[in-house]
Amino acid sequence: MKAIQTLGLTKVYRARHPACDRISLSVNQGEIFGLLGPNGAGKSTLVKMLVGLVNPSAGSARVLGFPYRELAPRREMGYLPELFRYPPWLKAREVLQFHAELLGKPIHPDERDALLDRVGLLGRGGERVRTFSKGMQQRLGLAVALVGRPALVLLDEPTSALDPIGRYEVSQLLRQLKDEGTTVFLNSHLLSDVEKLCDSVALIDRGQVIYQGSLKDAIYGGVRRYRLTIGGLTETDWAHIQPTLSKAVVMIQWDDQGHADIGVDMRRQDVPEFVKTLVQEGARIYEVAPDHSSLEEWFLSRLGKDPR
Amino acid sequence: MFTVVHQSLVETMRKRTLVAAGGLTFLFLLLFFLFLRWVGKPADIAGSTYIAGLTYLYLGLFAAYVMIALFAVLILVASISAEIDDGTLLSVIPRPIKRSRVILGKWVGLSLVVFVYVSVLFWGIVLIDQAQYGNLAAGSGHLLAAYGDFLLEGLVVATVTLFGSTVTATMTNGIVVSSAVLIAFLGGALEQLGALTNPGPAFSVIGWVTSLMIPTDALYRRALFQLLGSHVYPGALIGAGPFGAVRPPGEGMVFYALIYTVGMLLLALRSFGGRDL
Q: Which residue from B41, B30, B47, B267 is spatially nearest to B163, judged by alpha carbons?
């Protein structure tokens, strides 16, 4: 059973260009799934359809095996909206209590404190939401999404208001959730977070899915630019070697110590052979690294933007 | 649904809406009491105490009519629209609760608050007037009927405002419902004026139409007639002119108000049920 399975899910607002156009994708249970796309691509609309905030124009979906418009999947689902607010007159622990009551799953004070601890708000449960900073509200939102130990959590930009420490803590939390078997559906613009955390991704542009698959396939499946720092060769040596290389060197910069930074476009599996050839020709390899953040490069290239 | 009812009541208390409204209502009742005590003393003429009692009761009920409508609008005007705008509902709707339960929970919770307000205001005015001028001639049946009319007025305004909150922005909703209540009052005033001066049906038609739009004025004048009508003191309301209830609405208007309330509630359920958030 898939955690999420959509089939042709479509949303058209007032006969304009569809916000979501026949979106079919699936999310495996227990994985961290990243939903990517530029602003206005339809990501939030898709998430909102899955949680019942937006009515679809066409298509269907199943969430945790249930038809997604039924109430049943929502008993096992937590959701953190992108733009949200909790009633400012409530205390943090009352917000959790309220959501536990909506779920029909009573929450014990110890469990409530454990949840607050998990998101870094231990000891703040008695404070009113109105006194919370934006980052603290986002942490509280995460705690709310985890009320009732959901099997699936959908997080819409969960770290947008957090500082680097907060982002790190949330990353750790999401890994813990995965270890516990929770499926995490992550909608985020922070590609570095997605790259570190996700098992699979879907890329949406103009309401349509243009890629869905594993993150590794996305990053390593195609040709990318690698930057190598080499030494042990003179420019004259290089002029002799270059025609024998299997890959075209698209960029080279020499420094005063006889080192060179070179750029080569190739697939990941071609890297060892290329390095081996250089070593056989007498080069010393100091560094081999992707030229850009892998996912960012892939993201930009799939959207028709030159990452270089 | 009871979670939402409870939450609505907690919200009212925490936002100090009820405390503020209660404080101001107490102030109003205190001033009303002081006015009757020191200013509203009748002349030493036979029957003048009785007339003074009815006159000041009429003034008090008119104030109550306006205050109830305003209170019901203010307490419900942001109930849905503002929570959509600020994102409060975005975390509630994905929970396993039907949207209709959210609407019904808000309606029940906030209507209870309106009922408390109506009760304090209505009985406060009646009892102060009674304490000052003695027993009213209207029997307890008429008194309860008038109380029921005021409760229904609060419920009608509350339900219309809730419906408005599901379809339009907070400020627009407040302006539209307040204006509708005012228009209904003016329509009712024209109808009464027609009853006093003009035998033609045009004024009556205007009153009916505005009462069909929102039956608040009809309920108010019906309540007024229950307490001050000719069965209590012949001609008591003639002196009130267009602000009186010479031609009171019949029981049909009460049934219409009930149907109207149910209809508005159904419209609220329907519009919120299909709305994208």
A: B267
Q: Which of B11, B86, B97 sits opposite A85 (nearest CB)?
A: B86
A7 pairs with which residues across the strands?
A60
Q: Confirm if A32 and A174 have CB atoms less than 8 A apart.
A: yes
Nearest-CB residue to A54 (from B7, B15, B277): B277
pLDDT in tens, A61-106: 999 999 998 999 999 999 999 888 898 889 999 999 999 999 988 8
Q: What pLDDT, in 10s, does the model give residues B24-65?
A: 999 999 999 998 888 766 666 666 777 788 888 888 999 999
Q: Sign of the C-alpha dihedral, residues A52, A53, A54, A55?
A: positive
Tell me whether residues A141 and B91 touch, CB distance under 8 A.
Answer: yes
Q: What is the extent of the structural domain holding B247?
A: 2-273
Strands (E) in B131-175, as ranges, are none
Considering only residues 198 to 227 of chain A, which have any Cβ-Cβ distance to chain B shorter than 8 Å?
none
Q: What's the whole-model pTM score?
A: 0.84
- Please tell me which residue of chain A has the smallest CA distance to B95: A74
User: Please, what are the domains in chain A?
Assistant: 4-217 (3.40.50.300), 221-302 (3.30.70.240)
CA distances from A175 to A187, A215, B217 (A): 16, 16, 62
**What phi and psi values does residue B198 have, to the nearest 5 degrees?**
-120, 120
Over residues A19-40, the mean pLDDT reads 92
Residue A185, SS3 per DSSP: strand
Closest-CA distance, B2 to chain A, in angstroms, reads 10
- For residue A111, count other CB atoms closer than 10 A to its CB: 16
**Domains: count for chain B:** 1
ipTM: 0.80
